[in-house]
Amino acid sequence: MATLQRIRNHGVFLLVIVGLAMLAFILGDVLNSSSSYFNKSREYIGEIEGQKIHYTEYENAVEQLTEVYKIESGRSDFDEDMHAQIRNQVWQMMVAKYTLKDQADKIGMDVTPDELYELCAGANPHQLITSRRMFTGMDGKFDRNYLLNFLQTIEMEPETAEQQANIKQAKDYWMYWENAVSLTSLQEKYVGLLQNLITANNLDAKYVAQARQTKVSVDYAVKPYYTVADSLVKVSTNDIRKIYDERKPLYKQTPNRDIAYIAFPIVPSEADYELAEKAMQAIEDEFRTTDEVALVVNSNSDIMYDGRNYSENNVPEAYKEFAFAKGAKKDDFMALNYDEATRTFRMARLMDCGYSTPDSVQLKGIATKEDEQDQEYGWFTEADLQKNIAEPAFAGKVGQRFTVSLGMEDRTFEITGLTKPTPKVKLAIIEREVTPSSKTYAAIYNTANQFVVANTDEEAFRAAAEEAQMEVLTANGLQKMGNKVADLKASRAIVRWAFKAKEGQVSDVFECGDKYIVAVLTATHDDEYRAFEDVQNTLRYEAVNRKKAEYISKQIAAAKTLQEAAELMGTEVRHIDELTEDSYRFGNEGMEPAAIGTAFATAAGELSKPVRGNQGVIVMVPADVQRSEAEVNYETEIAQLNARTGYSLPYQLINNLEQNAKIEDNRASFQ
Prior knowledge:
Distance between the termini: 68 Å
Low-confidence stretches: 1-38
Number of helices: 22
Number of strands: 18
């Protein structure tokens, strides 16, 4: 009872405590939920027409396209530019997919499964399929048998882990191209529909025909702007701003940054050269005498030994004189030497010589199935063929056949031709480029870092660089999704920094390939349009010409005839015979659309008003306009107009979809 009473006596206090506890619990739950929400929102790299793009969807697509490029190119050593190209290509494909899908859904347009099958594996596959190397014979042409064999292979049950990996890679490859065909076909349908709607009509045909057939002869005089001294005119800031206001839509921009930067080259030190030379000297005697040449070379050289045959045409230039010297014999040795141009120590050993083999072989593929035919593949050098084909091909005789394994199938070849044998050698080469050691990297980094510590704003940055006689380079207009700065390798990190830094801020040290880079942010541009101050110098030239046009026009204001105007201009009267309304050029004066319009707008025999042209002021006297009475062939004219617009219309339609789509690109936060 006493306990209950104490509770009653402190009731209000306990309610407050319990209330605070409940509030903390609720707030904790809300905050946790909010945290989950914000974390979830950060999983999306963008949104296209209401379709959120999850990070994993994007990355999976990047990985898939990377594998496609590996298969297509036969390479896997892609540089940063290639990786950036792949990522941008994936994004553009997603933009094309979701913008087009949004429009296609509205009109019920689609590519059906049956259509897609015919486009991918039917009798006449889409060009995206027929142009794939995977389905191309050695004659360079599409082979449907290769395609069908491939499709059968990816449905096989794998027996080993290696087969499983190969089949998965092949399936991913096929899915990519199947999706690409589907998207491309949908685009073709959509564009085809609109092309039939957007077509020239009789009025267009009549206007074009009349413009081509309507002619006028013109006498004229022109005074180029360059003949008037700049000192004779005065241009104000308002004059330039007037042009800027007229052209402002042309200066629309996306957020960008300007930076200045200096480079600290990462080059080998004297100690690095000494270390490399000693390492090469340590293996020289072993290389000269060992029976395990491949092991020694491949463990120490930048050039691997594979026993290839070299001719005088394909042996590296540095070794030609040694390898094909008169009287050269097996185990001859080229002593250790240094090439300054490539910073490389090198030596070589002649493994075999005094024999000849053909330079090229002609091969034919032999059909192994009833529905196949033999294929003439043509001529190949040893370097053109993979090793398991080259060895039997160049060791055999004309008419001889051999079978090799090519991934998931065996292929039989027949040697149908061999060139005349030429002298060959086998050459073992050890090359080692001198590269900076970790100690050298650290020393150069410390120098760059000390520069950063001592110079924390733009003024100090520039002063210190000038004192050290270091070149200050600039990179303007960096885009948020830009992959690199100028030609600097691995410089995406600088772009990311530039969009987080403040103007005048000096960066940390960035490692960009063979350079350490220190940058300073010189300007930020986040407005919708480029600032007047950024473009006024480029507009000044036009503003000066406008003032010169006014100056020249006042000079000839009193002229009553073209001859008088020409004399006041200090020039002569010129003539254009049969200028047409659809002309692009005004005689020899170049692109002058205002002058062409004036020629047809001025009454015959009258002196025109001065025309402010692109290159000078023009006055003219036109003759009578000659109009053709020829009947218009509407069918031909319409066909020509449609053909003319047919090249650009597909691009314009798709580009217009993307330009007007609601797209949010947040990839910069993930890359």
